[in-house]
Structures are given as structure tokens and as C-alpha cells.
Amino acid sequence: MVLESTLRNIRLVGDGTLKIVERIGATVVFLGLTLTQSATSFRRFDLVIREIFYAGVQSLIIILVSGLFVGMVLGLQGHETLQNYGSEQSVGVLVALSLVRELGPVVAALLFASRAGSAITAEIGLMKATEQLSAMEMMAINPMARVVAPRFWGGVISMPLLAMLFSAMGIIGGFLVAVVLIGVDDGAFWSQMQAAVDFRHDIANGIIKSLVFGIAVSAIATFEGYEASPTAEGVSGATTRTVVSSSLAILALDLVLTAFMLKGWS
Amino acid sequence: MPDLGSRHLSVVSVTNLVEITELNFGYGSRLVLKGINLTVRKGSLVAIMGLSGCGKTTLLRLIGGQLQAHEGSVMVAGQYLNNMSQSDLYALRRRLGMMFQFGALFTDLSVYDNVAFQMHEHTSLSESVIRDLTLMKLNAVGLRGVQSLMPSELSGGMARRVALARATALDPELILYDEPFAGLDPISLGVIGQLIRRLNDALGATSILVTHDVQESLKIVDYVYFVSEGVIVAQGTPEQIRASTLPFVHQFIWGEADGPMPFHYPAKTMANDLGLREA
After folding, report:
1. For A121-151, how does the pLDDT look when each residue is reduced to its tens digit (9 = 90+)?
2. Is B80 near chain A, with CB under 8 Å?
3. Residue range(s) defining the domain that contains residue B240
4. Residue B121 sits in the same domain as residue B187
5. What residue in B sits closest to A135 (Cα-Cα)?
6. Is the dihedral of CA A144, A146, A149, A151 positive or negative?
7. Within a 13 Å sphere around the CA of B36, how many CA atoms are in the beta-carbon half?
8. B66 interaction partners in chain A (CB closer than 8 Å)
9. Is the interface score ipTM higher than 0.85?
10. Burial bucket for residue B186 (CB in 10 Å: 0-12, 13-18, 19+)
11. Which CATH number do you get for residue B51?
12. Which one of A16, B5, B20, B228 has the fewest CB atoms closer than 10 angstroms to its CB?
């Protein structure tokens, strides 16, 4: 009896794992298909620009406001901790490095997945449910090229820009709290930041991270939308899966990328 | 019936734009269409009728190449669709137009852009020519005045007419209609019916109409196929269909609640379901 129940539980875990692996595999295959159908997106870049507007520009408010608040909290917490060691002048370094290396790419990507990723999934899913994708196919236009690829590239291009803006707003938020509110010396705030932040190791690595997150979120969002069951329930389930899968993918990829970046790629 | 094995089939069949021979199709192990034989002559307007779920939309999707036959063959404009490559299929689809059940207009594009969509995608015509053609197509369905509206701002009947203008945008040889009358008020229904007939004749096209709206369809079509449970059970001109004494056709045409298609879905006896002892 106990053996049976243990075996059943092991089977359930195995089943679940297989499904997750299968889903990841299908997403990667879909990403490959999207890349092969991307020629139209680059030939007619206006299609991508339109998606950059919807995914990027329309995410600006949430990204900028969140960045500002995260920076302010970092300024407060950083100052509180650093003053115990008498180095509160370094709060600018702490704010900048935290944002540029980690929080900028990761939090911006999580917000992007919730705001733009879910919207992309819902839009493609509803296009499928209302037969718009079938209509396009019947017009001899490949929906992968005309609908999926522009949205994918719109997301990939928007993501690093949003992450950079998040970090910039965060630094301004940190400055407002640490310098304007608490009274840390602004010369020390900026000069220490300038000295400590390295373009190659900090800024470029942050951009690489956000680019990878952009590829992951956009691939997941377009895949879930395209594969959604053409019903209200199907689209709502796909939208939820996009946010959950994207968030987990971002955090997992962040760990891997950070490990490589700290150890060096070789 | 055409000889399937003959290589000169497409030459013999020039008068038939669509030929379906011994077609079987199913989803999983469930067979939806069984031994279908159907021909559509060039220039004609043919209706495929049947109850909801009888397989008529599946048949339309097989003709459009969205589904592949499991057995038998589907030939459109002289080309077999079985195992056709995607590029060949897309080349063929440029000669087809399809109107979907609820229009399937692109919700992020205006009425004008919906109708002009294929011209922008498939032709290198100048913007001014595309504009003139688009307005002519919209004028043909009486909706030139709504060109700047979005699909969400249209009534069901208007959306269907815009979809009709879009389906005929590139003057297709074959136009497929999936339930064009579903959910329309009587006036819109009459307008769509007349437009389908008029556009078919004006464009010199061939049309296949999948519908369960008997009265409107019989007014406009040249030939009717009746599908029931995946099989063609009757066919003929509207006059022949109206005069048919086949029980299924009679029940369908006159909308009788009971007949060969029973009112009750098969179930246990009522007494059994209520837990009563049967007498």
C-alpha cells in the first residue's frame, strides 16, 4: 500500500517534470521558428517599431515609477546600513551597482513580463480565438512572420532599453533620498559611483542580462499566445502561464548569467 | 466520378474548380467525414448544408488546405492539396478568398486597412491605386462610409460585409464562406445573401457556402450538398431539394423538431434516470 502510493507520487513528479521539459523544448523550437520567419520583420521594420511602441513605450510609466521607488528604497536602506561602518558616502556606489548589475535587468524584466508579456499573449491568443490567424493563413500570409516575429523583436529590442531606463530612474531615486533628503555629499555620491561602476563588467553585463531576459519573455509570451486554446478560458490560462513561466525563467537565467559573469565566461 | 489515377485529371476537370473524391477525415480516432464525393463547377455558387457539428466547416477547411485529408483527394483549381508544400499552398491561396463565421476582421486595423491588407502584403501597387481599389470594394458592399472605423465600432452585419469586401479584395477565383448568415438580423441576412450572389457573378468567381440557413441559401445558390454525420445524404438544385421526399432533407428544410434527427439525445430511460422502477 505504502509502496504503491510512493510509486504513484514518484510517477506524478516524473510526469510533471516531463511536461515542464516538453514545454521548454516546445518554446525553444518555437523560438527557432520565429527566428527563421524574421526576415519580414527586418524588411518592414515599421511592423517592429509598432510593437516597440506597444511593448516598450506603453510600459514606460510602470518601469520609470518602479525604478524611482526601488532607487529610493535602496538609498534609504543603503544609507542606514553603510552609516554603521562610517561609509555612508558610498551609498551612490551601492545604489548604482545594485541597479545596473541586478535589480535593473531583473525587476524591469519581471515588470515587462507582467505588463507587456501578458498583453502579447492575450492579443495573439484572442487573434487565434477569433480566427484572425486562420484568416491570415487563408490570405497566404504566414502569421509567424506577420504577427509573431514583429512582436518578438519588439519585445527583444524594448527590454534592454527599459532596463537601462529603470536603472537610470533608480539612481535618480537614490540621489533624491541620499543627497537631497538625508544630506549625503553629492560630490562623493557621484564621484564614487563614477569610479566604482565599470562599463564592461557592470553596465555591459547588465545589458546582456536584459537582452537575454527580453528574448526569454518575448519567446514565452508569443509561444503561449500562439498555442493557447481558442477559448476565453484558454487565453486567460495562457496569460497566467506567460507571467509565471517568464518570471521563473528570468530568475533562473539571472542565476546562471550572474555565475558566468562573476567567474568569467571562459 | 473522375478517375483518380489519371494524370490528365486537371485537364479533364477544367470545368470543375473543386473536386473531392472519396474523402475521409477524422480528429483522432473519430471519423468526421466519410467517403465524401463533391464537385463544384466553375462560376457556380454551391451550398454545403447540415446540422451544427456535422462536419461541413471541416469540409471547408479541407478545401482551403487548412486541414489535410486522411484518405481520398481534394483538388482545387487543378491542383491536389494532399501533401502540397507550404509555398505551393500559399501560392494557391492567393487565388482564394475566405469569409469566416464572424468576419475575423483584424481588430487592430481600421476597416480600410482590413480591406487593403492583402493588397499591401501581396502586390506592389501604389498607395493611390490601393486606395481606389479598396474604396471600390467597400462601395460594392455599401460601406465606403465606414472606412475609417475600427471593427469594434461595426454592427455584426456591417462586420460581415467588410469581411466580404476583404475576401474579394484580390478578385479571387474561389470564395469560401463559413456560416455567413450566423447571428444576423433578417435585413442584414438578405443583404449578405444578395451580395454573395452578386459578387460571385460580377467577379466571375466560384463560391462555396457552408451554412445551416436553408431559406436564404436556397434563394441564392445553384446547387446544394446535404451533409449528415459526415456523409453526403442528398444533393441537387434548390428546386430538387425543396421537392425532396427524403425524411432528413424534409425535416431540415421545414425545421421540424422531430424526425430522422431525434429531438432527444440518446440516453437511458427517464424512469431509470429518476431512479424509478420501470413498469
Report:
1. 999 999 999 999 999 999 999 999 999 999 9
2. no
3. 9-244
4. yes
5. B104
6. negative
7. 36
8. 134, 137-138
9. no
10. exposed
11. 3.40.50.300
12. B5
